[in-house]
């Protein structure tokens, strides 16, 4: 198709560019949506034999770390009956049940030196099945990193409260 009027040619080229942009943008959005939908069913579907756990080091004494962890467990509803055992340097909860799921959390704090403490954090999640409770992976490394960031903020709050 030949266009003799220069003004019409410019309008037609602009329309073609807009159409290509809309087609490209729509394709990208559809790919993103399909990717998210494909990942959704996997969450909580991986059956595991042992709960996952991750380590993180904080620049604080054990007593502040223990208090901060207990506060995070309470605030985030990560279990019931949050208990701190100062002799064993642990914070543990009992299972909290919500529908077909139940969750409990535990943390172990170890002194590394005069200013650092290492935390081993584990969140156990189970889903009710026909044969009983099955342990499932619900949290990934990124969610544990987020928990460690929240714990770090609570450590500073605990240090400010006591001093």
Tell me about this structure.
The protein is α+β, with helices and mostly antiparallel strands and 163 residues long. It has 2 domains: 6-42; 53-162, TATA-Binding Protein, CATH 3.30.310. The chain starts with 5 loop residues before the first helix and ends with a helix. 43% of the residues lie in helices and 30% in strands. It has helices at 6-39, 62-75, 141-162; strands spanning 53-58, 80-85, 90-94, 96-98, 101-111, 117-129, 132-136. Strands 1, 2, 3, 4, 5, 6 and 7 form a 7-stranded antiparallel sheet that branches.
Shape: extended
CATH top level class name of the largest domain: Alpha Beta
What's the average pLDDT? 84
Q: Helicity level, as a percent range? A: 40-55%
Quickly count the domains: 2
Helix segment tally = 3
Strand content: 25-35%
Q: What's the CATH topology label of the largest domain? A: TATA-Binding Protein
* N-to-C CA distance: 81 Å
* Number of E strands: 7
